[in-house]
Design a protein that fits this description.
DNA_polIII_beta_C, cytoplasm, alpha+beta, DNA Polymerase III, Chain A, domain 2, eight-stranded antiparallel β-sheet, transferase, DNA-directed DNA polymerase activity, about 20% helix, 3 domains, DNA replication
């Protein structure tokens, strides 16, 4: 194999595909990037057997070939090189990748391409296109509340459904629940639904944000999802299992509906959280409502107290406490000038929605906490 390519372009592509490399695997070949020289390009692939990323970089291929190069050293060498052209060769006899730039030469021990697993191919049949901006925005709204607990795999994913012209995403970690619905220009026949690892959807967002594309091509099968963004193809295994019946978790009605200026309460929460987060685990933040205002309170036995009062549409006295980080996550995902809180009892879940929407496109259900400082 012998190919000549631009160092800067290759470095950008290599940095992107390296996000799919396995960081901990008994299979050494998964710590590398598969490089295939053919036609007028280098095809770069990486996978950890859960997620795969493929892209291509322009090249003058003088002799086609395939090999797997350890990702970390490959990436580091290419990024450290000055601008210019790189010659990439495969010394089959010694089993090394040879990188040449100007008068410099680097020889990296490589793996056989035959050891690298076959990756799924994208098929236009059965695929569909969606607005990349809408898809990524929806992911951002719900990505705060997926679980990081690998013992409950279903909760580490995002439940994604396409129906008619609606895209819906749902996440929960048992302490909060995020639901975001987005209207799309595309109309779908039937309903398509899957639980996709949150990590994979966040990677889709990163790739789209760094591209010039407007649409993302999606292909869903029984066991995997593929996303094509320009010359990048991301594949991911779907998560098997039953997602919680989240519709049952949201109360049919609420006794209180209170609106507060979004920016004001976000600012208050960030400041009082300076007291809450210095204690492990963080102490609750209490929302103490009275007629026309809410007092945002944190009492830490180790640090001290913080009190802030801001206007609210509340009409009577009511107090409820939450994990301050979880509360801030939900409010921050609201785009309207005011945020609406819906409550029943102090130890029942509260709902956060945008202001002025009869059928809100974003809902954030959050479980309250007992505040030991108030009991």
């Amino acid at each position: 194999m012998r190919a000549v390519c631009n160092i800067g372009v290759l470095g950008g592509k290599l940095g992107l595909v390296s996000r799919g490399v396995a960081t901990r695997s008994p299979q050494q070949v998964l710590s590398g990037v598969l490089v295939e020289a053919r036609g007028e390009r280098l095809e770069l692939s990486a996978t950890d057997m859960e997620l795969s990323i493929r892209t291509r970089s322009p090249a003058e291929v003088e002799e086609p070939g395939r090999l797997v190069i350890p990702a970390r050293i490959f990436n580091d060498v290419v990024r450290s090189l000055p601008d210019g052209m790189l010659v990439l060769e495969h010394d089959v006899g010694e089993g090394v990748a040879v990188l040449r730039s100007r008068e410099n030469e680097y020889r990296i021990r490589a793996y056989a391409a035959e050891e690298f697993p076959a990756l799924p191919e994208f098929s236009a049949e059965g695929s569909f296109k969606v607005s990349g901006e809408a898809l990524v925005e929806t992911v951002e709204k719900v990505s705060r509340s997926y679980s990081r607990d690998e013992t409950r795999p279903v909760l580490t994913g995002i439940l994604i459904s396409f129906e008619d012209s609606r895209l819906r995403m749902v996440t929960t970690d048992s302490y909060r629940l995020s639901i975001k619905e987005t209207e799309l220009a595309t109309t779908f026949e039937g309903k398509r639904e899957a639980i996709i690892p949150a990590r994979a959807m966040q990677e889709v967002g990163r790739i789209f944000s760094g591209s010039d594309e407007e649409r993302i091509e999606v292909q869903l099968s029984e066991s995997q999802a593929l996303f094509r963004i320009g010359d990048v193809l991301l594949g991911t295994r779907l998560i098997a299992g039953n997602f919680p019946e989240y519709g049952r978790l949201i109360p049919a009605s609420f006794e209180r509906e209170i609106s507060v200026d979004r920016d004001e309460i976000v600012g208050s929460l960030r400041r009082v959280n300076l007291f809450a987060q210095r204690q492990t685990p963080p102490v609750p933040v209490s929302l103490v409502f009275s007629e026309g205002s809410v007092e945002v309170v944190v009492r830490s036995g180790e640090v001290g107290e913080a009190h802030e009062r801001i206007p609210a549409s509340s009409e009577d006295d009511f107090t409820i406490s939450f994990n301050p980080g979880y509360l801030l996550d939900g409010i921050s995902a609201v785009d309207t000038e005011k945020v609406v809180f819906k409550f029943n009892e102090p130890l029942k879940p509260g709902l956060i929605v945008p202001n002025g929407e009869e059928e809100p496109d974003f809902r954030y259900l959050i479980m309250p906490m007992r505040d030991p400082a108030r009991t």
